[in-house]
């Protein structure tokens, strides 16, 4: 199996370079087969769930190499379809995984847009890692994926996430009623967004209109 994943890694190396960022303290990139122990440890070291938006730690029985390979395969497939880019956040100092960011529901039609998501493991809260990682994610979205617009859909009572969206310069656009089905019910989302021009990044993509 390592040979298979080595082939995949080589085949996709040039593309992975495009969705790689190194910031002052972090590295943002896709997972590879060599990250298994880091992935496992990130779950084992996570504290108990602190609020309803926090992730529950995975059971140790789930943290197997077999399940990790399934995750890698799924992430690779989604990147290849240009629909979902799931990137892990690594602490440069320790090389440990401290969270993830994502570019989701990519629209390559007239909108050239996507949603962004972000999550920092709760044992790393309070150090500004989220803001640093999301800035890097936005740069990837606009420069490398050539999107024109990104949105963050946030539940109205999720103050931490709203504070982060504001701190990185996203603007509030309004409320989407009953937009997502979470925790067995439909939930509203406040939409924070930006276009590449607001980050002084020229748009270099192509619009794909529907055929007449």
Describe the structure.
- There is one protein chain.
- With 212 residues, the protein is of the alpha+beta class.
- The protein has one domain (2-199): Gcn5-related N-acetyltransferase (GNAT) (Aminopeptidase, 3-Layer(aba) Sandwich), CATH 3.40.630.
- Helix content is 31%, strand content 29%.
- It is built from six helices and eight strands.
- It has helices at 2-11, 13-18, 36-44, 65-80, 129-144, 159-167, and strands at residues 21-22, 26-29, 85-91, 97-107, 113-120, 149-154, 171-182, 185-195.
- Strands 1-2-3-4-5-6-8-7 form an eight-stranded mixed beta sheet, sandwiched between helices.
- The longest helix is centred in the middle third of the chain and has 16 residues, at 65-80.
- It is globular.
- It starts with a helix and ends in a 17-residue tail after the last strand.
- The relative contact order is 0.13.
Summarize the structure.
The protein has helices at 2-11, 13-18, 36-44, 65-80, 129-144, 159-167, and strands at 21-22, 26-29, 85-91, 97-107, 113-120, 149-154, 171-182, 185-195.
Summarize the topology.
Elements: H1 2-11, H2 13-18, E1 21-22, E2 26-29, H3 36-44, H4 65-80, E3 85-91, E4 97-107, E5 113-120, H5 129-144, E6 149-154, H6 159-167, E7 171-182, E8 185-195
Parallel strand pairs: 5-6
Antiparallel strand pairs: 1-2, 2-3, 3-4, 4-5, 6-8, 7-8
